Amino acid sequence: MVPVRVLARGVPVFVAGADAPYDTMKEFVAFAEANPGEVRVGSTGPGGLTSIVLAMLTSQVDLDLTRVPYDGDGPALTALQGGAIDVMPVALGAAFEGVRAGRMKVIGLVDVVENDLVPGVSPITEAFPGFESYLPWGPFFGVFAPAGTPDDVVAKLSAAFEAGARNPEFVELMEGRGFSISNIGGAEAVDFLTSYRSVSSWLVHDAGFSKKSPEDFGISRPGQ
After folding, report:
1. pLDDT above 80 (res 138)
2. How would DSSP label each residue in 41-84?
3. What is the distance of C-alpha 4 from the center of its chain?
4. What is the number of alpha carbons within 13 Å of residue 98 lying toward its C-beta?
5. Within 10 Å of residue 196's Cβ, how many Cβ atoms?
6. Which of 28, 68, 91, 145 has a Cα at 20 to 30 A from 162?
């Protein structure tokens, strides 16, 4: 497959219960360090967004967290609001309604820029600069064509989707649901996808979830 256009990207966040005794990632990390094993973090299984974002965090700080598995974001966020867990890494779009209703709060924005949907929440790179080698990262929407599609056809398709992604209705829909507009094609899209594959593959491998090293498939470590 070849990328025609990467349209939008989900922005990962760390959310906590509304009454949690921490409001930022620095405060959360300090609390977790002072209370080893006591912070319960929701997880949706190895290799998913939650495990990858947690692997990003634990690559920067050594934390003893209790991971609680759930069958999807919905059950985990319900548990968070009910006090069964303390923190959940999730795509902003999945948590946004609960955040807007005041039932949970965003304590960490896993991105390199601020987001208008969560004013006052700094990008996690400000507190933990090491995240920069992984970001931007997140589940994305894109359009692809079969390998071997003529370049002029890919270019025409890319131009059409580029225009569509600038449509105010599309932008409002995506941003209103917590997605960041990417609207990239060509070499820029290839670079994003290469980074996405590298970050995902190596974090999963280093966490012990994969049977083979990404190196076996010619995938370089992030930043290399």
Report:
1. yes
2. EEE--TTSHHHHHHHHHHTTS----EEEE-SSHHHHHHHHHHTS
3. 22
4. 26
5. 18
6. 91
Residue located via tokens 């807007």: 100
pLDDT at site 211 = 81
Contact between 110 and 13 (Cβ < 8 Å): yes
Contact of 185 with 157, CB cutoff 8 Å:
no
**SS3 assignment, position 88:** strand
Distance in angstroms between the alpha carbons of the first and the last residue of the chain: 24
Asked if 134 contacts 111 with a C-beta cutoff of 8 angstroms, the reply is no
* Pair of tokens at residue 122: 């700094």
Please write the tens of the pLDDT for every residue from 18-76: 999 999 999 999 999 999 999 999 999 888 899 999 999 999 999 999 999 999 999 99
**What are the structure tokens assigned to 100, written together?**
């807007």
- pLDDT at res. 186: 93
Domains, in order of start, for the chain: 2-8+135-217 (no CATH), 12-133 (3.40.190.10)
How far apart, in Å, are the Cα atoms of 165 and each of 87, 93, 138, 149? 33, 18, 18, 22
The whole-model pTM stands at: 0.87
